[in-house]
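Sample pair:
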Amino acid sequence: MDAISFHAPFPRLNLSSTPPKATPFAITLPIITNIRLERRPYQTQLTTHSPTNTTDTTALIEATPSPPPHSTEPVNGKQRKEPPPPLENAARTVRQLYKLVPSCLRVMLCNALDDLISNFVEPHPLQSSVNPKDVLAGNYAPIGEMPPTKCTVEGQLPSCLDGAYIRNGPNPQFIPKAAYHLFDGDGMLHAIQISGGQATFCSRFIRTYRFTKEEEAGLPIYPNFFALAGVAGFMRLAVFVVRVLTGQINLVHGVGLANTALAFMNNTIMALWESDFPYAMQLTPDGDVETIGRWDFGGKLRMGMTAHPKVDPVTGEVFAFRYGPISPFLNYFRIGVDGTKQPDIPIFSFQQPSFVHDLAITERYAIFPDMQIVMKPLAMFTGMGPPMGCEARKVPRVGIIPRYATDESEMKWIEVPGFNFVHSVNAWDEKGGEEVVLVAANIVPVEHILERMDLLHCCLEMVRINLREGKVVGRRALSRKNLEWGVINPKFLGRKSRYAFMAILDPMIKVSGIVKLDFDRASGEDCVVATRSFGKRCFAGEPFFVGKEEGGDEDDGYLLTYTHNEGSGESSFMVMDAKSSTLDIVASVRLPQRVPYGFHGLFVCQRDLHKQKNWQ
């Protein structure tokens, strides 16, 4: 047969339809009548058109730019050409090996290595906190998507709830093959849209880049963050690097799960995960949830963003931060009402990469925790331990910086021994800004925060800090109960508030009830003034407060949450009267499918839903 042969210094690749004669070191192609040559940076694309086949065949050939010439300066009176640097030789070798292995074999090789690590290298049995059989048991088990479905309403849904309640949480699309922590699952939104007393429920995955790549692969190809420990973790990370180098994964598109929280910013619903950019979401008029895409605020957001930005209820500004294992370990920034992100303010006085999940704001300041849970990137990359751990000798601090600071010169760090908070409830200024009051749940004992959450006790505390003196001048526990995931009337964020509503953890992250606290009783033993228990084997999630439209008192509104009855297997949407002495249930919605236990939620009123850019 007629053919065109290109001689090359690598094994023969036969693209013809019939077996050609064996020609060493040749690429044999079918007859080509038309060739279009397109030059792009580091790439040449040849598109061939065969007269007997209407299907175009495209071949991509990687072209490596020529290295700069080596030095030819005389050495000892003789002209000598220096050898290329060792790294350049190694890179050239990797590129040559890369060309020898077909893409399908690269994928199969990485998959086989992952299986090898899971079956023979990873220690068995796994710890309960990272064993998929334990972590994904009961109502933690993943579910499939559910399109918008009409629901049965018991009682009457208040008119101020016209809008949508959406809750985020982990829900892996594939059963993990390796160690899996509760924080590692793909993000899924469970949305209930309310209009005129009727309710429509929907569950949808957040279609992150990571989700779509694993969906295409048909199996997990990203290592779970909390599986990166020990020799198995080091090997698993190495396999992931190979996937990146061989083009299976593009890190430019991020590695995020978007599974933690939600915020309404710039007239857009954002799904958040603190080690990646937010994902813009869209709630449609029929109650469906769609993923718009990764959001970087016009290219001004770098690396990631906290899952708990604070939206000022008066100015509409957003205050946020990002943290990581590379100095500066903490960067503070704000986002204007028009959605324009302001420059990062690096906080170099944050001297160690630590876990910073949340912040608090007042009318004058932004407040950050510096807790005893620290990041250990060296341990992770060397396989010597988990990526995070507790540093017992470290004294926790609270950092306070003016909201509109342009640098960290006015940042003040105050030591608060034994005070490790993951989520803040609220904060406000007193005495003309001389003092700051912070309300947050202190985690005790903090060393169990990642591995044994069932042993944690969250003690709600009120801490008073005098900025002029630079010290804590008051500190008091507000309840003996195990309380976390606190919410307030959002109109009082950053302002002095009287009430908070907290989840009773029994254990984390299962919520056995909701309590209401009155801060005016902070001088007594316990500030709890109302309690709602969900009954035997019935658990809920974080509550969310929605105020009545006509205003009224600070606590005049409703508490929203999803509940699950482990006896019957049914899930419900619950509405409670926040002002009543027993947090009475005023309405409930029977959901068409189970809602797994998850993380944080958001209510978006009907007026704001209509502000979405693509609402039709």
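The chain is about 10% helix and 35% strand.
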